[in-house]
């Protein structure tokens, strides 16, 4: 079945462009459009999309708050949110990731990247490369804890090896790189990442990276 996509942007011309790109793909279907966050919430409830392409800066309700309501505990469906931003390292992107977005993409990204990002997010993965996650968090280190705060109790539920894996995820390593660093198989790394997400109640490795920084486990700029 085709991946159901909802387009959310306050610029109709951009929505039209995205629609043309996506409808050229057999496995993607644009089921609706919205011009602001409030309309997006209504459309999510009515249309039950798989992926929401979410602009950040919009009237009435911005993309961060809309993302929070779409992906929060009271959510009405299984929709994943892929944030669209005009500027690389938009200051709101970190907040959108914290709110539950599965990743972000620049609006001027090539068409094939947009299509691939939707497919990856729909499959339940994070399309945001770990290296970009780290770059974002380093850029906005002033928004994050200093590292002197108490370690969250939830962190103590992880094994020593799971903590190692979480640190490496936050520092931008792929599963293959983590496997090489720890001298284990990629399958073992995937298992550890899965355990980390389950124990910490996180959606994906993007949120895991955010958690690692916010908890003080990894300090911004650390190697």
UniProtKB/TrEMBL annotation:
Keyword Phosphoprotein among record annotations: yes
Gene3D superfamilies: 3.40.50.2300
Residue ranges occupied by any HTH luxR-type domain in the UniProt entry: 151-216
Keyword annotations of the record: DNA-binding, Phosphoprotein, Transcription, Transcription regulation
Record-listed 4-aspartylphosphate modification sites: 55
Domain of life: Bacteria
Membrane found in the keyword field: no
The Response regulatory domain, residue ranges: 4-122
CDD domains listed in its UniProt record: LuxR_C_like, REC_NarL-like
Pfam families named among the record's database cross-references: GerE (PF00196), Response_reg (PF00072)
Protein name (database record): Response regulator transcription factor
UniProt organism field: Streptomyces luteolus
Taxonomic lineage from the root: Bacteria, Bacillati, Actinomycetota, Actinomycetes, Kitasatosporales
């Amino acid at each position: 079945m085709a991946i159901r996509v909802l387009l959310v942007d306050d610029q109709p011309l951009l929505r039209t462009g995205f629609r043309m790109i996506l409808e050229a793909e057999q496995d993607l279907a644009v089921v609706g459009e919205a011009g602001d966050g409030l309309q997006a919430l209504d459309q999510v409830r009515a249309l039950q999309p798989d992926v929401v392409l979410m602009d950040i800066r919009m009237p009435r309700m911005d993309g961060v708050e809309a993302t929070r309501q779409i992906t929060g505990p009271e959510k009405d469906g299984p929709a994943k949110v892929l944030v669209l931003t005009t500027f690389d390292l938009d200051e709101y992107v970190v907040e959108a990731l914290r709110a539950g977005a599965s990743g972000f993409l620049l609006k001027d990204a090539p068409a094939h990247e947009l299509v691939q990002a939707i497919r990856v997010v729909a499959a339940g993965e994070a399309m945001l490369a770990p290296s970009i996650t780290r770059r974002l968090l380093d850029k906005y280190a002033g928004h994050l804890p200093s590292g002197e705060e108490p370690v969250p109790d939830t962190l103590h539920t992880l094994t020593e090896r799971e903590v190692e894996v979480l640190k490496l995820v936050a520092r931008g390593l792929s599963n293959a790189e983590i496997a090489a660093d720890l001298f284990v198989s990629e399958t073992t790394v995937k298992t550890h990442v899965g355990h980390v997400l389950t124990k910490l109640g996180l959606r994906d490795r993007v949120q895991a990276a955010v958690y690692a920084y916010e908890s003080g486990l990894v300090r911004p700029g650390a190697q």
